[in-house]
Structure formats: C-alpha cells, structure tokens
Specification:
Layout (H helix, E strand, L loop, with lengths): L4 H13 L2 H8 L3 H15 L4 E4 L2 E4 L1 H31 L3 E5 L1 H6 L1 H11 L5 E5 L2 H9 L5 E5 L7 E16 L10 E2 H4 L4 E4 L4 H10 L10 E3 L2 H9 L4 E5 H7 L4 E7 L3 E9 L6 H24 L4 E2 L2
Parallel strand pairs: 3-4, 3-5, 7-11, 8-9, 8-10
Antiparallel strand pairs: 1-2, 5-12, 6-10, 6-11, 6-12, 6-13
Helix pairs in contact: 1-2, 1-3, 1-4, 2-3, 6-12
C-alpha cells in the first residue's frame, strides 16, 4: 500500500531528527502519535524503516532509499506553495522581480525605491540570481519579471531589450593599460586576466571576444559573476571584463575602466512569459527601470563611457 502525505511528513521528520521525541517537537504533535504513524507506515509498506540504537533511531537501507523520493515530493510541494504565494502577491498588486547580478546590485535598487515612492504600500520581493535560475523562475511563474544582462533564450519567454551597455576592461588605476583610451584584444591578452566560467552568459560573451586574439590568454582565475570579477581586480588579482553597469556600480577609486575595441554590446532585457500580459505594477516597474537606465547612461556619458539606450 502507498503512504499518505502525512505519513511521509512523519517519516521525513524522524529521518531528520533521529528520534520520535524530536520529530514530535518538530511537527508540534505528541510523541505517541509519531510512534503510531510511523508504525502504520511500516505496516503499509511491509518493511522496517528504523532500528533502535541506544536512544536514537538508525535508518535502514530501505529508509535511506525512500527518503530520496520523499524529499523530491517535498520540493514539489514547496514549489506549489511558492507559486500560490506569488499568484497571491500579483493579485494584490505586489511584484516579484528576479535580476542578474550586475543589474540587480547596481540598477534595480533605485528602480525599486522609485516604485515604492509611487506606491508606498506595495509588496515587493527582489532576488538576484544566476541567468539559468532567473530564466527558470520567470518561465514557471515564480517571478513575473526578470531583468537580465546578455541574452537568455527560452521558448516560453519573451525578451525585450531596453538598454545596450558597453563591454569594459577593468584594471587598477596605476596599471599600464590606464594610458590607453580604448583596450584592444591584443592589449588585454598581454596581462594576467580574470575570466568567467564558460557555461555562464558572460563566459560565452568574453570567450567569443577573446577568441579573436592571436596571442594565448594568461588566466588561472575563473568566476561566475561580474561583481566577483570587479572585486578581484580591486584586490589586485588581475584585469577583467565587465559591462559598464557593473563597473559604474562596483569599482572603487583604486580601479578604472576603458571601453574595449571593437565595440562590444552587453544588452539588458526584461523577460516575461510569452503571450501573457504583465500586470500594471510590472509595467510601471519597467517604465521606472528605463528612467533609471537613462540616468545611468547620462552619468556614464559624462564620465566618457559610450552607452546606447533603446526606447
């Protein structure tokens, strides 16, 4: 016979706590009820799940196999609860946004502040995620809008480009490259470089850019985010590439940047479910995001960096 969800819950609690008493406290029920429920589960399955060793319960090999499947069930239940919460959030006029690192840390905060000023009692949830996590969470409805730099293709999502940042080379202010107005590929590969993991959007972009070089690349440090690349440059670990939004928001007075040559675009887009209209709140967020990006573009222009905006 099969187990009920409640029996699975009890079994999981005992696996985690290794005792009836601790499982009872975890589930806020009596210890006898835990014992009865576990005994019934073993009768239904026709197998022993635990052996008593002193005062603790030791899982049998069968229990170790069963917990893997039950953990998967719990993840799906949690996922359903998360989606239900997000649907309620959207219905109440709230908004959940996911964003990639350089945009999330340096552009989204001011946009959220502007949105909160417009709607003081709005419920907001913001999370910075990797590109793959971001795409997945927008596609399955866990977030209404995702803001991502670089391309993030998914058949169920529609991406709208709202900004084109320029790829920059970053290095310490006293670095020999600081004498140059723009950085060519040949200039960069002469120096120790911090690169990105090849399975990341940044990794694919930078690898494509550097593949044009005739000289072998010198690098033994790989990262997954532009934020970490900027931090390592600041620490003196090498030079790196990052989009101008990340550079504008993260580097200190000890680090400077120059645009690469030839021009390399790093597009910023917002993602939504294809064919599904976004809420009024999400539309306002995107409008305010555009205002913030234009403000940054003006600041970057004053600093001498080349930017391009859409819309």
């Amino acid at each position: 016979m099969s187990l009920s969800l409640r029996q699975m819950e009890v079994f999981r609690a005992v696996m985690i706590s290794s005792s009836h008493a601790a499982a009872a406290r975890m589930l806020k029920v009596s210890q006898p009820s835990i014992s009865r429920m576990l005994s019934t589960a073993e009768e239904r399955l026709g197998i022993q799940l635990f052996e008593r060793v002193g005062r603790r319960l030791k899982p049998t090999p069968e229990a170790e196999r069963l917990i893997i499947a039950i953990d998967d069930v719990y993840k799906q239940v949690q996922r359903a609860n998360d989606i239900a919460r997000d649907l309620l959030l959207q219905r109440s006029g709230g908004l959940r946004v996911v964003a990639s690192a350089s945009v999330g840390h340096y552009v989204i905060p001011n946009t959220i502040k502007a949105l909160h000023d417009r709607i003081p009692d709005i419920q907001l949830e913001i999370e910075v995620q990797t590109a793959s996590e971001l795409v997945k969470n927008v596609a399955n409805g866990h977030a209404e809008v995702g803001v991502v730099n670089l391309n993030a293709d998914h058949p169920g999502l529609e991406g709208t480009r709202i900004y084109d940042a320029r790829l920059m080379c970053i290095f310490p202010v006293d670095h020999p490259l600081a004498r140059k107005a723009t950085i060519r590929i040949e200039d960069a590969v002469e120096h120790h470089m911090i690169t990105y993991e090849p399975d990341t959007p940044y990794g694919m972009l930078v690898e494509g850019f550097l593949s044009q070089a005739r000289t072998p690349l010198i690098s033994n440090i790989r990262v997954r985010t532009s934020q970490m690349a900027c931090s390592l440059v600041e620490a003196g670990a090498g030079i790196a590439f990052a989009d101008e939004l990340a550079v504008h928001g993260s580097v200190s007075s000890t680090v400077t940047a120059r645009p690469v040559e030839p021009y390399q675009s790093v597009p910023v887009s917002y993602l939504s479910v294809r064919g599904q209209p976004i809420s009024t709140t999400a539309k306002l967020f995107i409008e305010l995001l555009g205002v913030e990006l234009k403000s940054i573009a003006a600041a970057l222009s004053d600093e001498g960096a080349v930017t391009r905006t859409n819309g």
